[in-house]
Amino acid sequence: MSADQLVQVVLADNPSPMTGRGTNTYVVGQGDVVVIDPGPSDKMHLERVETAIRQRGRAGAVLLTHHHLDHSESAAQFATRLDVPLAGIPQPEMPPLDTNLTDGDELPFGGGTLRVVATPGHTRGHASFWWESERVVLAGDLVAGEGFIVIDPPDGNMVDYMASLARVRDLDAAVILPGHGPAIESPRAYLESYIRHRLDREARVLAALGPDPRITPQILPAAYDDTPEAMYPIAVRSLVAHLEKLAAEGKVEIVAAGPEAAYQLKD
Ligand SMILES: [Zn+2]
User: Fold this and answer.
1) Which one of 17, 66, 200, 260 is most buried, counting C-beta atoms within 10 A?
2) Can you give the C-alpha Rg of the chain in angstroms?
3) Which residues of the chain have pLDDT under 70?
4) Ligand 1 centre and the CA of 116: distance in Å?
5) How far does residue 126's CA lie from ligand 1's centre (Å)?
6) What is the CA(157)–ligand 1 centre distance, in A?
7) How far is CA 208 from CA 49, 187, 202, 213, 248, in A?
8) Which uninterrupted H or E stretch holds 136?
């Protein structure tokens, strides 16, 4: 049976600038099925997820890619209702987990085995699930089928994020099923474009810096001149993530930390 027949996506009705068309909940397998990211506590949505489970068999586990509420809000209650364990990579913001996952764990289900791939960066403890026999990655918010992912420090970390993108690229998947947007049919090229996008941005950030300390309102318009001003409150978070990566690499000096933070090129 093909991955197409073995995975069902149920789109939550929570569209927004941050969630695109809404959050994708995946029901995976036949017989013993797993639910990935049950999504918001929306009765109608969860009923549709339950219908999808029933059409395929019965649930064996609920898995979380990360703690953001658009993925996890319903998770603890829903797992209890289904009487199955809730599993994810533990971190403080996660709902209470029954099963703590770690990189490399193998999760058998009715259709094969999902391997846990730790993909931190969007958040700490972000997990992707690699279904190697079908060459499918269920990637949460590592990538989106449309647009880009916000990296919001300190939970978000650009160094980790870039490493996670490269790691999933190197799996050489046939399909990525993201937490938002449509399936990604050319994962290697898509992830390459994500990596290039970040490196381009990093170059713009460097070009917007000088030997004197500059604060983010000075850096942002130059580094994000392709971004509408309405998006600046979100863009500034990714800017800080880029600056922290550059500081970790010794290219930028953080002159003052916290809300007063200023950044300058390191000589
Ligand atoms: Zn999300």
Assistant:
1) 66
2) 19
3) 1-4, 257-259
4) 18
5) 11
6) 16
7) 47, 31, 10, 11, 18
8) strand 136-140
